[in-house]
Specification:
Number of helices of chain B: 5
CATH topology of the largest domain in chain B: OB fold (Dihydrolipoamide Acetyltransferase, E2P)
Number of domains of chain A: 1
Helix content of chain B: 25-40%
Order of helices and strands of chain A: HHHHHHHH
CATH class of the largest domain in chain B: Mainly Beta
Mean pLDDT of chain A: 88
Distance between the termini of chain B: 70 Å
Shape of chain B: flat
Strand order of the largest sheet of chain B: 1-3-4-6-5
CATH architecture of the largest domain in chain B: Beta Barrel
Structural class of chain A: mainly alpha
Number of strands of chain A: 0
Radius of gyration of chain B: 22 Å
Number of domains of chain B: 2
Mean pLDDT of chain B: 85
Structural class of chain B: alpha+beta
Distance between the termini of chain A: 27 Å
Strand content of chain B: 25-35%
Number of helices of chain A: 8
CATH superfamily of the largest domain in chain B: Nucleic acid-binding proteins
Order of helices and strands of chain B: HHHEEEEEEHH
Oligomer: heterodimer
C-alpha cells in the first residue's frame, strides 16, 4: 500500500487490457482534466435550457396541472441515484478484484453525489405525493427500496471512515457496495413485480414512452444536465482524492527520512 | 488460475448466490410486499373483519355518492372483473374522480370496505390537456370507456 502510494507506476499492470491503462493515477488525472471542461459546459447549457423548458415552456399536465413540473427534477434525480450506485458498485468490484487504487477513489468520490441525488429524489417525490396521492410517504415497494438505496450510500460512506487503517475501511465499504447492487434491479422492477402506489416507468418501457413529446424534451434535457453534473463533480472530487494521496505519500516520505538521524550515513 | 481471476469468479459467484437468495426471500414475502389487493382477491380470500388492508382499483363510473348528513362518500372500486363498495368519511385527494385509480386502506366487513384513508393512484401517462381532449374526441381514450359497469 505504501510503496504503491509513493510510486504510482508500480500499479500499472503489464500488458493488460485497455481499461487497466487508467489504473495509473497520473494517466487517469490527465483523462479527468480533459473531460472536466466539456462536462461543465454541457451541464450549464442543458441545465439552463432544461429548467427553462421545464418551468416555463412546457404545458401543464391534463391531470396534475402545474404539479407535473416537479417530475422534471424528480425523475432525473431518481435515474442518477441508480446510475451512481451502479458506478459505485462497478468501481468497488474492480477495486476488490484488480486492486486498482483509482477505482477505489472513483467509488469514494461517487458515494456522496449519489446519496445527494437519492435524497433529492425522495424529497421531491414526497412533495409531489402529498398533492397527487394525498400522502407524503407510503411503504410501498418502490419508495422503500429507494430509501434502502439511500441507507446503502450512507453505510458505504460511514464504513469507509470507520477504521484506523484506511485500506481496511475501503475494503469493507467496497464489499457493502457490491452486495447492495442487488437492490438496483429491485428498485427498477419493483413497480412491475408488485403492485405499488408509485406509477410504473413512463420513459424506459417496451412499447415506447407514455409521455408527450412536449414533456419528454425538458425531461431528457434535465437528464443530460444531471449526468454531466455528476461527471463534473466526480472530476473535481477524484482530482482531490488523487492529490490527497500524493500529499500523504510525500509526508510519509519526509517523516521517515527525518525521524531517523542515522539514516543519512 | 491467477489470483485476480480467482477473485473475479469469487465476486461473480457470490453475487449470483445473493441474487438467488434475494429472489427467494422476496418471492416468499410477496403477500407483505404488495401495497394493495384487487377487489377479486379480497372477495375470494377469507378476510377477518379486524384485519387492516388495502384495496386498489379504478373508481367505477357513476357510482360515487355523497351522503349529506354524515359526509360519507360511497363508491365502487373495480378491477374490471369484480367490484367492491367502499365507504369513506374524510377528505378525498385532488385526483379522486370516476375512472381514476385509487387505493383505500381500512377493513372489509360484511361485503363492504370501510376505508380509513383513500389515496389516488397516478398512472404513467403524461400529456398536455389539449392532447387529452383531442384523444377523447377521436375516441382513442382508453380509461373512461373501460370502467363503466358491464351489466
Amino acid at each position: 500500500m505504501l510503496s504503491q502510494a509513493i510510486k504510482p507506476h508500480a500499479m500499472q499492470v503489464k500488458g493488460s487490457a485497455k481499461m487497466h491503462r487508467f489504473a495509473n493515477p497520473t494517466r487517469f488525472l490527465r483523462l479527468v482534466s480533459a473531460i472536466k471542461p466539456w462536462a461543465t459546459g454541457v451541464c450549464l447549457l442543458t441545465f439552463a435550457a432544461g429548467l427553462y423548458f421545464a418551468l416555463f415552456a412546457s404545458p401543464p399536465d391534463y391531470q396534475q396541472r402545474e404539479t407535473v413540473r416537479i417530475m422534471y427534477v424528480h425523475v432525473p434525480a431518481a435515474w442518477m441515484a441508480m446510475f451512481c450506485y451502479a458506478a459505485l458498485a462497478a468501481a468497488s468490484a474492480s477495486a476488490l478484484i484488480w486492486r486498482h487504487l483509482v477505482a477505489d477513489m472513483v467509488a469514494r468520490a461517487t458515494a456522496p453525489i449519489g446519496a445527494a441525488f437519492t435524497l433529492l429524489a425522495l424529497a421531491t417525490g414526497s412533495l409531489w405525493g402529498k398533492p397527487m396521492w394525498g400522502t407524503w410517504w407510503v411503504w410501498d415497494a418502490r419508495l422503500t427500496s429507494v430509501l434502502i438505496l439511500f441507507f446503502l450510500y450512507l453505510g458505504y460512506i460511514v464504513l469507509n471512515g470507520a477504521f484506523d487503517d484506511a485500506s481496511r475501511g475501503a475494503r469493507a465499504a467496497s464489499i457493502l457496495a457490491v452486495v447492495g447492487a442487488i437492490n438496483i434491479p429491485i428498485i427498477k422492477f419493483s413497480v412491475d413485480w408488485w403492485n405499488t402506489l408509485h406509477q410504473p416507468a413512463s420513459v424506459v418501457k417496451l412499447d415506447g414512452p407514455a409521455i408527450h413529446m412536449s414533456m419528454l424534451t425538458p425531461l431528457l434535457l434535465m437528464a443530460i444536465a444531471y449526468t454531466s453534473f455528476y461527471i463534473w463533480i466526480l472530476a473535481i472530487r477524484v482530482r482531490a482524492e488523487i492529490n490527497t494521496s500524493k500529499i500523504r505519500a510525500l509526508q510519509i516520505r519526509r517523516v521517515t527520512a527525518s525521524d531517523v538521524p542515522w539514516n543519512d550515513s | 488460475m491467477k489470483r485476480k481471476n480467482k477473485r473475479l469468479s469469487f465476486v461473480f459467484l457470490t453475487l449470483l448466490a445473493l441474487a438467488a437468495a434475494a429472489g427467494l426471500i422476496l418471492a416468499a414475502f410477496e403477500d407483505n410486499i404488495v401495497f394493495f389487493h384487487s377487489p377479486t382477491e379480497i372477495v375470494k380470500k377469507n378476510i377477518r373483519p379486524e384485519q387492516r388492508l388495502r384495496v386498489g382499483g379504478l373508481v367505477e363510473e357513476g357510482t360515487v355518492k355523497q351522503s349529506g348528513q354524515n359526509a360519507i362518500t360511497s363508491f365502487r372500486v373495480t378491477d374490471l372483473t369484480t367490484s367492491l363498495t367502499v365507504n369513506f368519511k374524510g377528505i378525498l385527494p385532488d385526483l379522486f374522480r370516476e375512472g381514476q385509480g385509487v387505493v383505500a386502506e381500512g377493513h372489509y366487513r360484511n361485503g363492504v370496505f370501510e376505508a380509513k384513508e383513500v389515496l389516488a393512484k397516478h398512472d404513467e401517462t403524461y400529456m398536455p390537456k389539449e392532447v387529452a381532449d383531442a384523444l377523447k374526441k377521436s375516441g382513442k381514450w382508453k380509461v373512461e370507456a373501460s370502467t363503466k359497469p358491464s351489466d
